Amino acid sequence: MKEEKIATLHPTPGKVNKVIAKSKYDFIRSQLLDILKNAELTHTELMESLYASVKDNFEGGVQWYGEVVKLDLEARRILERTKSKPEKYKLTTSIN
């Protein structure tokens, strides 16, 4: 049986993102949302936290998938970048 795929979005108009396995998208999405539930993190902090939380349970490039899913969540307005220096990522709404 063929694995279900998802076409991710990109927050920059005109840029196209990737088509990836839905199971990997869902797993990384869940992890990113959980990490950001109670914190605002820089890009480096976010990717390091993601790697630490999934490295033993994920097959594939954690940071590559993390970046693709992060961009998709930005395009869907679930995540946003703060105006602070350095930029940080935060949830736009509370996730239950």
Report the end-to-end length measured between terminal Cα atoms.
32 Å
What CATH architecture do you see? Orthogonal Bundle
- By DSSP (H or I, 4+ residues per run), the number of helices equals 3
Broad shape: globular
Low-confidence residue ranges: none
Rg from Cα = 13 Å
Query: What structural category arises from helix and sheet content?
Result: alpha+beta
Structure description:
With 96 residues, the protein is an alpha+beta fold. The chain is 43% helix and 12% strand. It has one domain: Orthogonal Bundle (Arc Repressor Mutant, subunit A), CATH 1.10.10. The strands form two sheets. It has a two-stranded antiparallel sheet. Strands 3-4 form a two-stranded antiparallel sheet. Helix 1 (22-36) crosses helix 2 (43-54) and helix 1 (22-36) crosses helix 3 (62-75).
Which key features would you list for this structure?
96 residues; alpha+beta; Arc Repressor Mutant, subunit A; two-stranded antiparallel sheet; two-stranded antiparallel ribbon; 43% helix
What is the strand and helix layout of this fold?
Elements: E1 5-7, E2 19-21, H1 22-36, H2 43-54, H3 62-75, E3 79-81, E4 89-91
Antiparallel strand pairs: 1-2, 3-4
